[in-house]
Amino acid sequence: FTTDGSGYLYLTRPLDYEEQSTYNCFVSVSDGKFTSHEPARVAVTVLNANDNPPVFESCLRGCCKGEAPPTKARLVVRVDENSVPDTPLANFSACDPDGDA
Length: 101
Hints:
Blueprint (H helix, E strand, L loop, with lengths): L1 E2 L5 E2 L11 E6 L12 E6 L9 E2 L37 E2 L6
Antiparallel strand pairs: 1-2, 3-4, 5-6
């Protein structure tokens, strides 16, 4: 983060919620002769964007820990030919690094 003396706070690089979701900046003000006694703390909260796809947990354990997702998922389900209707075939779950975005 940076300022240009006009009172605006600017980004100096792109932010990533999954990397870091909060920042604390300390800002002092000056009129050219005097400077504020204590800097003000500015809390910056990064809002989560839905920028990561969900991944099947059976394909990649730990996908929500910053590991790269697989390029293609291939899940195989086998079922007996004499299975009756409503027989559960599989239970799928996925994780989404973006959580609730």
